[in-house]
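Example record used in the benchmark description.
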Amino acid sequence: MESFKLFINGQFESGAATFTSLNPATGEPWAEIAEARGDEVNRAVEAASRAFNAPEWRDLTASARGRLLMRLADLVEQNADELARLETLDTGKIIRETRAQIAYVADYYRYYAGLADKMEGRVLSIDKADTETWTRREPVGVVAAIIPWNSQLFLSAVKIGPALAAGCTLVVKAAESAPTPLLAFARLIAEAGFPAGVCNLITGFGESCGTALTTHPDVAHIAFTGGPETARHIVRNSAENLSKTTLELGGKSPFILFEDADLESAANAQVAAIFAASGQSCVAGSRLLVAESIKERFLTMLVERVQRIVIGSPQEMTTQFGPLCTRQQKTRIQTLVAQSLDQGATLLTGHYEIDSPGFYYPPTILDCSATPQAATVVNELFGPVLSVVSFRNEAEAIRLANATAYGLAAGVFTQNLARAHRVTRALRCGVVWINTYRMVSPLAPFGGYGLSGHGREGGMEAALEFTTTKTVWLRTSDEPIGDPFIMR
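Model output (structure tokens):
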């Protein structure tokens, strides 16, 4: 088996123990992973804290930080094939997507390289005649970045990039499920020339690793991507130290299809929204809200398109749909789909057993129009299951779209520009795609409302999340200060 170690203070090392990672396409172990527990977590945070205060990093100019990030971007691009191989082996994501996505990750590091020397303070037109006042943007300190298994090189880039650009140091925790691409990425951090301790990469389990990291007194900011229940634990853990948090959580995103939409384009977009990455995406368009007048026509078109999806080995470039990441995930999805069918949903396609030793579950569509509170409608499945609910008018579509505790993303499909604007304003979510879906860019902020979290990743807003504002007052008068008992 391949072996992967922790990266602490610029060195690769064995952990407190090891565990194995399974190949989701076969169900077989393929890699041995070093596990971090309390001692390793403490040493990683201490290394990040020392690096934050050391002159090698503290006194580095913002432009110099940008050049290091630019070098890192080049290395990611040069090593994209190997990183993609590891991500496909460990997560089951198809190789055609991991290669494309990791190549694009380099652009995120380039974007934040360019932002490093542009996080500017400002001079205030203060209401004191004898005073100059300005603000500075300064790094918050040590950042704990907690990354899920899916799209981990992308989801780490939107934390590592802006945090390093701002001048922070990090301890990055990869998920215990499929951590190998991120642990391999550590070599690129060292090769890029970052000082030891600036970026540490570890992995481990919740109680022994995650809790130790999120309760550590030297952690100033916790950046987390994952589910709401874990986020609640993190927020409770952060309370003792009042650590700042940014939380990018799950979603139950509506895909709203009006009667005047381009149905062929919408069908492809809906396939991308819920069946790309085998549905394992926080922005998955898992609720199709479709106008009653076109429901049957569109579903006939969609089912035919879905049944042509090529299911196979994620290593093959012809494969469009691979396995789920874990056996537990497959079991949970099977249970919730069966529950929805018992509640009265109608199976249109899918929900059968694929003859494979891996963790495969087929693209599945349920018509839940008669049961809009079915289990698959209200729960985030993080898998390839689409729940369909019809609506009669625009007001009902908006009501159904907002009838969730989540608020991450939405798709709106209509040729009516006025309607697109009205619906976009009415939706309670952080991202809206109009006549498209599942698009990202380093320039665009990303995040949600409600149980989908708070804070933003991407764009200048993400970089500012890792800074704090210092206000500086300079008195310009040579006259003695007046009455000391009156606030000026």
